[in-house]
Structures are given as C-alpha cells and as structure tokens.
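Researcher: Please generate the 3D structure of the following complex. Treat every line as part of one assembly.
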Amino acid sequence: MDAPLSEETVRSLELGETVYLNGPVITGRDEMHIRAMEYLESGKDVPADISGSVLFHCGPIMMQREDGSWSVVAAGPTTSARMNKLEPGFIRSFKIRAIIGKGGMSKDALEAMKEVGCVYLAATGGAAISLAEGLNRCTGSEWLDLGMAEAMWRFDTQKFGPLIVAMDSKGNSLYENVASSLVRP
Amino acid sequence: MIKLPEPVEDVVVNLLRLANTKLPEDIGWAMEAASGWETNQIAYTQLGAIMDNVKKAEHIGRPMCQDTGIPVFYVKGKFDSSIGKDIARAVERATKDIPLRPNTVDPITRENCGGNLGPGMPIIHYIPTDDDFTQITVLPKGAGSENMTRLAMLNPADGVDGIRKFIIDSVLDAGGRPCPPSIVGVGIGGTSDVCVAMAKEALLIPIDEENPDPVLRKMEEDIFVALNSSGLGPMGLGGSTTALGVRIKKCACHTASLPVAVNIGCWATRRASAKITSEGVEYSQGVKF
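Model: Done. Output below.
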C-alpha cells in the first residue's frame, strides 16, 4: 500500500487485514501532538506534511552521521493509548489517514477515524529492528528540542510492516472485539 | 574491598549492551514453544515478527526495542560506596555508544536530562552481603509495561482468591499496552514500597526455574493457565499467548495487611548480570538473585 493514502483506499481496508506500507510516514508522540495543536490554535506555522499523513506513534533511536543526516537504529511503536485525549482533535484537524501504533485507542478516537476516513494499524510492539528496516530512510525532522523520542521524524518507508488493520474506518475495533470476549476466571 | 580485574564502568557498559541486544534464552525458548501451539493467525504473525526481530537485533548488536527503558540496577555482595558513580558514568557512555535512547526527563518540565541520568538516576538497589564477589544486575525497564504497574492493599480476608483475581485483572485490563506476551512479576506481602520492589525483582527470576515454594508455584501455574486461556493474545490482538511466565515473590507482612503488587515485563524482559571476582568477570542472563 502506497502513502500518501487516499480516503478511498483507507475506507476499503478490512479489520484484521495485514498490510505493508511504502512512502512517507511521520512520527509523533505526546509532545508532538501538543505542539502541533498549540501552533495550529495560535496561528503559527505547522509542518505541512502533517496533513493527510500516516502518523507513526514512535520515539525512535536515531544516530546522526558526520554530514548531519540521520540514520535510524531502532523504531518500534509506542503505546497509543497515551495519546487518547489528544488524538480525536488531531485526526480531525489534520485529516490523518492512518495511525500506526500498539495497544489500540479509545472509542473517541475510533469515532474520529470513522468520520475523517482513517485507520489504526497495529505494528508489533518491540519489533524495533525489523520495523526500522522498513522505515528505510530518514528524510528529515522537526522540533528536535522536544528530545529524540518526542521529536517529529520523517521517513520514506519501504515494505514497512507487517501492520494489522486493528481499527477500521467503519467503527470496528479488533481490541474491542477481543476485550468483549475475554475469558475471566 | 575486593580488587576488581577490570573497571566497573566497562563491565556495566557490557552489561547494558548484553541486556539490550540479546533476549534471555529462557524467554526466547518460551516464545518459540508458544508460537508452536498458537492457532490464531494474527497472534502467530506477531510472535513470528518478534522472533525475527530478536534474531536480527542479536546479529547486528543493536537494541531489540527502541524503548531501552530506564536501567534498574541491583548491586549485591561486596562493593565500594563509589560504585554508584561508576555505574552512572557507564550509563552515560552506553547511551552514546550502543546507542540507547535518552529517556530520562524532568517529571514536571518534561525536559530531557540527557545521557539517561538526571536527579535520582541511575536507580540502584544495594544489597550488601559477606560474599567475596560483586554482582551487578541490570533490568532495563520500558515504560509501556512499567506504566501498567498496580499495587493493591487487599484485606487479609480476600485471601488467595482475592490475590489471584487482582493479578489476572491487572494483566487483562492492561490489554495490549504492555506488549504481551508478558512476564508477570508479582510481590505479595511486605509494606507497600517493599511489595512493589519485590514485583520488579520477580522479573529477574528465569521463567524456566521452578519456584521452590510449592504454594507460590501452584499460584504461578494456575495464573499462567488462566491468562493464556483469556484470549487476549500477543499485543492484545487475540490468541492464546498472553503470558510467557508468572513469577511470584513473597515476604512477611502486617497481620492487618495483604499488599499485592503487579509489575508487568513486556516480551522483551531484558536482564543481564555480571559476577565480578578477583579472578575475572562472569556474565549471565539467567540471573541468580
């Protein structure tokens, strides 16, 4: 599947489907969400490529080369639920097309995803070396003052995955399905 | 004080490298076994992706997970009071050399402290003994699993059933957030602080080592079966591999108290230990703690 993703492509994805991604992806965690929303509300410039992006919940380990460019060392997904409060507004404001993370997100986020046309793709938590291979090439960064983990990184991905469609744009969530059928002794 | 064959700083850098790049064998074996009997397709894919990642990380000598955590140290045996400074220098060096992700921040301003140091860091538990060696153990603890920590001050009348329910609920309520399949560390007894510390120490015990206490062993087995029958599965996406092991430690407590703490370890429960004698340094990941 090639990013940038169209709304049509996103809406055609089925729950439980496995996909691999090519093309541009940006990273963002708590601090990046907070800053982007603050900038947007106060009329400051926000990086244009946030709009319509594939957003990876990830704080990678990066190493800077002598020429100033960056290489990715390890980059797995972080716990998406931390962004539960911030994400519904973020999805609506920036028309995010896909979120890559782990552990799933809230009903409010699912609702925003349905409204905007966005999916949640589950990456394997901790599989940071395999996933870094798929991130392929770092094409830039923003807001490095937030620290390595919280900064916004840009990657040009190639066969990035496996990613499981765990929350679709029709209001279905694999996490909710699993939670509602859990067997508790 | 014993004379050390090589600087503590070098030993600790080696320890951090070993812990972050190589999964302990007992956990790797448990994952392979689980993958063998997992019938859920998504779960099987997740376990495959994890094992593939573990092999690559070890092969290229890079951290298996980008969250290299906060390193929690346990220093046991004979040691000099300056050992804390040696460990701190090693953490800073390892962060640059391996590299590790600089994770420590001020809790209020959220400003990164750099080098994984900062006030109160690194975290070191000191256990002085009369032994003729110094044992340094490290448990790099990521936040995904650490954030799911729970403590309950149960009523003594809640008994074993209450303990069991609290542990199982803690793991299932955490869902996919702590990166299951998990290692479940449990502390029972003590005071609140000691109970939580025991739950973390329990993660140092290899999962293939039999608990010498028959009552705790039965509880571990019973909870292990319940968790893997729950349907939560790897990453909370469903399946029969929710836990790779359950480890319980206990100590005495007040007659009016029943503290229970759960500290979950992600699949990448990383640990490494160095036993330093005048003869040399012996590294291990099956920690005898």
